[in-house]
């Protein structure tokens, strides 16, 4: 009886030790990138490429809405880099003292017109006034950068008044795409990057003239937490490399025009 | 008034209307379903019970996406309605009602089913032997005896609809004055960093809900009777 | 015949197949062991279960082929084993539930009279949960009567009551027996209860009717299990002859003789039912002169039958046009050389009024 008890005690001790060890390992956390959900495809490839170049580096990406990520970082989330889908969120973080350095623009997005039902490549913004387009999906202009630029483009084309009653608003550009996917919205003003997702291969779209709206600049920062992390610094440098630029372009981003 | 914009008021009005209509419809539709679930001996019952609970499993925006597919012009439901000349239901108030009903379904069916199970068949048999027809039995026996369950179901469904966001945004498209309910408006305020507006609208929504629920619970207290058949 | 029909119902292993012909008035007891199908048959009569076959009550077809009158269209009253009062209604509203649902022109009972008959006047404003078990059952019976039934069905209304509540409610049931002009079908598995209340008996066994007939006939039939039960009894119909108010004793006229019983005074001529257990009947060849047993009736042996107990015999005694049974030992029968047709004297060691 006693022998059984002793053995039990020992296995409990062993279990405790192995648990403690696991936890100690967890202390050495990887470098974490917080990235806008719309960047998922391109960021996965960027991280993979960086990993092959730096096999020793421990790096992972977490995706979410830019606004939510920003609020999480303000409140101490364990992210070392923040890639936003706009400039405003990283700028706000910098202003709040949550960044270790300036906001770096890394890419520029483009707007496209896309429809599930028809070939949108010959479509123009003006044609959206047609009765056959009953519902037009865009991201919410109030807080989603792509939505705001879509509104600017429609206003610049003098179409806003006409089209406003037909608009439906996704929480973000991803939801706007889902609305078009489902067929519930006939057409959407979406992101060029989305047209490069694997499920969208081969779809045709109309690229909206970027002079109709303010640039869709995307910026990133190294957070205060990532300031001393060599991997975070290394990935920031990698973003300037021709290799990274090539990947971004392949996913429908153009290089920032630079000011 | 109270610092709320006209579109905020519109959103609140829409929210209350949606919550009242979908709660009312749910109660009416779930009564027979819950009754059947409470009393059937069939094996298919467990499948139906699981189906009813499914809206709890999927993330709301995903439910919204599937509903959009179903109710949109290319969906089975939306497409059929379209061909009948009624028009599909995506981005309409009717679509919102359907969406919030599906989302709140388990919150209505389960309390009702529990109430009916606790009641058993006996009170209905008694009422039938006392000349009460089926509809009479529903009004004079089933509803009074399952009042607690009905109340729980109504409150849960109502409150759940007030706070619902994901499903409603997806199926409704957040069109101001048509499908932009208070929760979407609040979310939009927060996302646009307009915290002051968000706080005002949130506070007001909670105040309305609190007042309504307190009244309902107070009424329930006043009319409380023993619910078990002696 | 006011209630007649043939009903069949299959429930898993159990199969009910009953043919019924019940009299127009009085109480019919459905009697049998638990599981014999009494309650199921009663529920079929009410329409609470849908069996196959046909049923007609007072000339109205309640069930025939595909025609099935739903429960709420059948003019019946049903008293369940548990009182089953509506918990959300006060006693008054429980009573009015069925009453209100019968058109004023078709009501055959008076509200106040019924309330008085069952002694529930003082309970009208109470909630069901504030009543005792006996009170609840009285309210339930009144509620059933107030629906002006043409057939009253009672499913062991005393089974869930304690002895005190049973004693409280029995007099009310007996009052019903004399007051009601409609047939009553009463389910029971207690022989004493049946002996006190029933006029007609349907004996059920494993879902089938074993025998049916007037109570006093079936109780004493030696080919039925009733007469062999430990508490087997016969009933005698009697009439009050005279009373002794001081000693609280009454004299009854009963066919061929006279019985004395301890009982509060009752008006002369009142019909009363006396139940006499088989084990309480002693047979003697001469009228006993020196016995403490007061009641003795001249009788004639009409049958001597075997009893399941190897040492016992069951003797049927004819007294005028009524019948008693006596359980005696084989040894005693041999010693007295009892034979069928022999005139004897039946001493009643005990007799209960019902």
What would you note in describing this structure?
Chain A has a domain at 109-212: Periplasmic binding protein-like II (D-Maltodextrin-Binding Protein, domain 2, 3-Layer(aba) Sandwich), CATH 3.40.190.10. Helix content of chain A is 39%, strand content 18%. Chain A has helices spanning 2-27, 40-53, 66-74, 88-95, 145-156, 160-163, 173-181, 230-238, 242-250; strands spanning 31-36, 59-64, 81-83, 104-109, 111-114, 136-139, 167-170, 187-191, 206-207, 216-222. In chain A, strands 2-1-3-10-4 form a 5-stranded mixed β-sheet, with helices on both faces. In chain A, strands 7-6-8-5-9 form a 5-stranded mixed β-sheet. The termini of chain A are far apart. In chain B, 75% of the residues lie in helices and 0% in strands. With 354 residues, chain C is α+β, with helices and mostly antiparallel strands. The chains are: A alpha/beta (259), B mainly alpha (230), C alpha+beta (354). At the B-C interface, helix 6 and helix 7 of B face strand 7 and helix 4 of C. Chain A: InterPro entries: AvModA-like_subst-bd, ModA, ModA/WtpA. Chain A: Residues 1-26 form the signal peptide. Chain A: Keywords: Metal-binding, Signal.
CATH hierarchy: architecture of the largest domain in chain C: 3-Layer(aba) Sandwich
Give the name of the CATH architecture of one domain in chain A.
Answer: 3-Layer(aba) Sandwich
Give the biggest sheet of chain C: 6 strands, mixed
Oligomeric assembly? heterotrimer
- Helix and strand content put the structural class of chain A at alpha/beta
Overall mean pLDDT of chain C stands at: 87
Name a few traits of the molecule.
heterotrimer; B: 230 residues; mainly alpha; MetI-like fold; 0% strand; globular; C: OB fold (Dihydrolipoamide Acetyltransferase, E2P); six-stranded mixed beta sheet; five-stranded antiparallel beta sheet; 8 helices; transport (chain B); MetI-like_sf (chain B); cell membrane (chain B); ModB_ABC (chain B); membrane (chain B)
